[in-house]
Amino acid sequence: MISRPLPDMKTLIVIPCLNEAANIARLLRQLTDSRGNMNFLIVVADGGSTDGTREIVSGLKGEIPDLVLLDNPKRLQSAAVNLAVERYGEGRDYLIRIDAHGDYPADFCQVLLQEAVDTGADSIVVAMDTIGFGTFQKATAVAQNSKLGNGGSKHRSGAAGQWVDHGHHALMRIAAFRTVAGYDESFSHNEDAELDFRLRKAGFRIWMTGKTHMIYYPRSSAGKLFRQYLGYGRGRARNLIKHRSVPKLRQALPLAVVPIAIGACLAVLHWSAAIPFLLWAAACLGYGIWIAIGQRNAYGPLAAISAMIMHFAWSAGFWLELLRIPSLRIPSRRTTGWAS
Question: What is the torsional sign of CA 203, 163, 287, 296?
């Protein structure tokens, strides 16, 4: 594919955030340093930070041109993007969504815009490279970067440029975003996949670029990871119910985890009831050992534990939502850690 020169495109960059004082200045300066002559309006949609984030952004307005601080009273990421497009999207060509808690290559925005011009896509999505620091976070990163943890999802494992059904949101044509009425704010999780479903149904095309990516930092404890994937499972169930669609095989397999775990309780009546659960656990641990030996990664066995937490929580969230059990609902996801 031969790249064509970038036209003068007016771009809206939206950064949903909440309590990101440690990261926001670095991120804003990075975006400014790499903008060149591109026409950017940067909107930081803050969900009520109390750690100094708002003051940092306000203080940078004199240093960074076209920087806006927007109050996001609903606090959800989906609401942040919707509000920013409503207030500042008029007359702008593209929306770029940036995670305040992620990292990006210096030319991230330029590559996205170039891909939009070269492919004619209405949405450009990217793969995520997951990186951890502490022991549990590193193990979870290994799990999320493997098929054991991501099921072969293209936006988790990375892929060469291709047309896809869904991916990690990065750039979108504002006209397409508005045509499908933006994000459904009733979704606290999986709102990106839900929007992608409506984009495709409306005839818009989604391109996964292999020319850039984002860096994602996973949850740092088992409890936080469990709550995150419980929400993901709920969101996926809501998506399937809303659109009356059928889960893909990689999504359907983890659904069996909670039923077989419940079935294992019947082992008190007969030992064979525990076999499916033991086979699942053995498969996960075996994959972790393979990672340790085959990839020479010492975090393999711990990655298997992280993957098992992810599988169980995702399955539990899905079934809780499907059975409409409101008493066990988790709080809505706010404006941090928005990877799907």
Answer: negative
DSSP for 170-205, please give it.
Answer: EEEEHHHHHHTTS--TT-SSSHHHHHHHHHHHTT--
Boundary-marking domain end, from 173, 199, 220: 220
Is the model's pLDDT at 38 over the cut of 90?
Answer: no
Which residues, at least 6 apart from 33, have a Cβ–Cβ distance to it below 8 Å?
Answer: 106
Residue 96 half-sphere exposure, CB side, CA atoms within 13 Å? 27
Are 99 and 177 within one domain? yes
Give, as one character, the DSSP assignment of residue 71: E
Question: Would you say 125 and 166 are in contact if contact means Cβ atoms under 8 Å apart?
Answer: yes
Given a contact cutoff of 8 angstroms between Cβ atoms, the answer to whether 212 and 112 are in contact is: yes
Using one digit for the tens of pLDDT, what is the confidence trace for 287-334? Answer: 999 999 999 999 999 999 999 999 999 999 999 998 886 544 444 444
Owning domain of residue 79: 10-220
Q: Sign of the C-alpha dihedral, residues 142, 145, 150, 151?
A: negative
Do 111 and 254 have their domain in common?
A: no
Contact (Cβ atoms closer than 8 angstroms) between residue 335 and residue 17: yes
Does residue 5 lie within any of the structural domains?
Answer: no
Mean pLDDT, range 17-37, rounded to an integer: 89
- In this model, does residue 246 exceed pLDDT 80? no
- Same domain, yes or no: 73 and 183: yes
pLDDT category at 155 given cuts 50, 70, 90 is low
Q: Count of domains in the chain?
A: 2
Domain assignment present for residue 3? The answer is no
**Closest Cα to residue 111, out of 246, 186, 11, 257?**
11
Domain boundary among 186, 220, 254: 220
Count the neighbouring beta carbons within 10 Å of the beta carbon of residue 135.
11
- Residue 279: its pLDDT value, please? 94
pLDDT at 157 over 60: no
What pLDDT, on the 0 to 100 scale, is given for residue 186? 87
Beta pairing partners, 215: 103, 129
Mean pLDDT, the chain, rounded, equals 88
d(CA 123, CA 145): 23
